[in-house]
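Hi everyone, sorry if this is the wrong subforum. Our group has a chain we'd like a structural model of before ordering constructs, and none of us has done structure prediction before. Sequence below.
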Amino acid sequence: MLAAGSIVGILFSLIALESGSVWNSALVHGVWNLAVVGGIWQIGTAANPEAIFSFVLDNTSFWISGGEFGIEASVLSVGIYLAFSVLAALRMKKKAAV
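Answer:
Right subforum, don't worry. Here is the predicted structure as tokens:
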């Protein structure tokens, strides 16, 4: 969970740096929270009848499901956060070189 939170924090920071506004990071974070916490979209090891879209994982491994915390802390999610962070950093580097 610490790795997931740290890497997504870095991603949000890069979004703010690239866009020049912390509000873009807040918007991305807010949309995510609305979708996941607001019950629109749920991914987990059990169905959520309150969610509009619910995807049930067949695998209960912590590495895939994120364990008690949820999919946001899975290795898959951490990899996606890291990939987008690298893309944002490369974009910033290219922009600075021009």
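For your construct planning: The longest strand covers residues 41-44. Residues 6 and 74 are 13 Å apart (CA to CA).
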